[in-house]
Amino acid sequence: MHLSRRSRLSAVSAAAAALAIPALIGIGVGTALAAENPGIAPGWEPQSRAIAALGADPIMIPAPAATPARSPFILSQPKEVQPFPIILNHLVQEYVDAFLNRPDSLEDGFARSRPYLPQMVRVLRSYGVPDDLIFLAFAESEFTRRGKGPWQFNKATAQKYGLHVNHWVDERRDPILSTRAAAEYLADLHDAAGSDWRIAIVGWNGGDLAIDRYWSLRGDNFARFMSRLPRRTRTLLARFMAVDFIAHNAAAYGIGDVDYDAPPSYGHVEVRGGTRLSTIARSQHTTIYRLRELNPAILHDRVPPYAHNYQIRVPLIDTASSS
Question: Which of 137, 192, 236, 319 could form a disulfide with 265 if both were Cys (CB 3.0 to 4.6 A apart)?
């Protein structure tokens, strides 16, 4: 498996290196089907063109009041990685409605991800993981920096994929490091699932053995797939697709613009192991609060003392904020 995955990653990395970093763009759902399907009434829109690729009948929903705008949340898709097929069935629509009934919570999650999302998506691409799966982190945790972090790794899986979880740091909380672990884990699950991303997410939620248990659900019959899953996995998939759908149409649903195409508001410096955050804050003309915000993996008042050198994020001088 590892040799096969490395070969695949090498091909994806080589292709990605040949491309300029694309601007963050949205993929609206406002493409009318009326011209192709005269029976579709005006004023109704499909949830996703991905349904056509599945060969399933589109589920029609009322169009948002505004025409869906190009979303700031979605990065353009490289040709080497197919997008995750998003279906808006009744269960997913329930979660869309639930998220939109408390938009501040979802918008806060998008805002927390803003400094990191472009790099996180680049990490996913380097492992051949679809961009859309970035929203699995929102479905898991609404992009929290606390507890088990955005991807909600348990300790054993986190350590298996190279994250440090100890007295000094919990790298599950670091958006970039945890995304690298998530991408590798998802790539492994994808291989084990016979290149079926839905079954890979079943394995993500239910463990590696769940892939064997639900192997027969592979394919395009989404209704059958969802009906056979345990409730916990069904809920995660529905939440994930709901967040993805909202993000693709953020402006239309009143979530508001967030400029993910802006340059990072932080840089990196290397410090000696055991250096106090207060010392770093003084030297970088910032605050301990801001350092903790940018480095959520650090659990105490200093970087890990066992590290010879430790790379830490610091705000750029003109964007430093006070607590």
Answer: 319
